[in-house]
Amino acid sequence: MWSRRLAHHKLHSAQLDTTRASVQAGFAGGRRHAVRGSAAGEVVQRVAVPARLRVSHGDAWGSSSSSSNNGGGSLSTQSGVAVTGYLYNTNTIEEFKKSDKGELLRSVGAEILQAIQDGRATLKPELLWPFVLLSFADLKKYHFYHWFGFPAVTADPPDT
Question: Does pTM top 0.85 for this prediction?
Fold first, then answer.
């Protein structure tokens, strides 16, 4: 489970550092899967398999990154594509609960918009799909709290 990697990252790399760190993950889009019966392989039903983001992909926990991350999602996996996200690890549960999730999404969304405007996203499309992982690791009780966010650039509604 990725909680073991988060605990290792917290103990050995980040310690009390709360600056943003890069995180690698694998993303697989949703699909439909046919469930076959035992009689002559007939399709019994079609089941929807939802999209998945798997943080335990490879060596997931990277070093601290600046706001001008170069992205790491160009590598593909067997079941999807590798994506880079941002880990914001807090030191207390209170800090985790009081974190402004909207501001985290807005700041990463602004980076996506900047990559579109300056043309970097044309050369590196993986800059268009970062994720945000806010976490708190209670290492004494081995409890992990996390929140995932997926920023998106949207057009402002026209003034009416």
Answer: no
